[in-house]
Amino acid sequence: MRQSIQSLSNELKQVKEKPNVTVERLEYKFDQLKVETLEGTLNIGINPADLNSVEDFSVPPGSTETQTFVRHPNLYDETLEKLNHYIDHELDTLIKDTETQVGRTLDEPYINMIKEDIRKQIPGRADHYLGFFSTQPNYNANEEELYSKVYKTLLADINKAVHGFISQIPNQQGGANPHGT
Fold first, then answer.
1. pLDDT tens digits, 123-142
2. Model confidence over 31-41: pLDDT tens digits?
3. CB distance 79 to 145 below 8 Å
4. Rounded to 5°, angle at Cα 50 from 169 and 148
5. CA atoms of 29 and 116, how far apart (whole Å)
6. 130: CB partners within 8 A, 6+ apart
7. What is the pTM of this model?
8. Which of 79, 149, 172, 175 lies at a CB distance of 3.0 to 4.6 Å from 31, suitable for a disulfide?
């Protein structure tokens, strides 16, 4: 047993004496990659850099804010229609402006992927904001004001997410052809 302990102590000393390896910077050359498919999620309202604190956004099961709020079907549908109209008719302008600002040009399939990804997230985000705003301590707005606030908040989220997403795309990704052909 003493011999084993001595052997382990010697090994531990050797490990401690080895110099530590520190990797200060990793560089990826995206221009050398061939992109076969382009998949992913554009998160509206959450910055991927903030994912370290994503647990702060979790809600315990059975206590969701939206359970305490009954949505008005006509106003809800109207809000979703307005947001879809924005995506179909006005988001292209934001994308083009952002492309100009960051010096990139996205291909049409890539732009369509962004639009569809946003479109899929709208109902869930609308429900989230309806529940959130209606349960605020000082909430006293009527339903039309509430839905207007949800619409404006989602527009701001969409604009911020699109700008942030395009700004963070590596130079060769999303340009030319996102499928690598």
1. 888 888 888 887 777 666 68
2. 555 556 656 66
3. no
4. 90
5. 28
6. 66, 69, 71, 76, 146, 147, 150
7. 0.56
8. 172
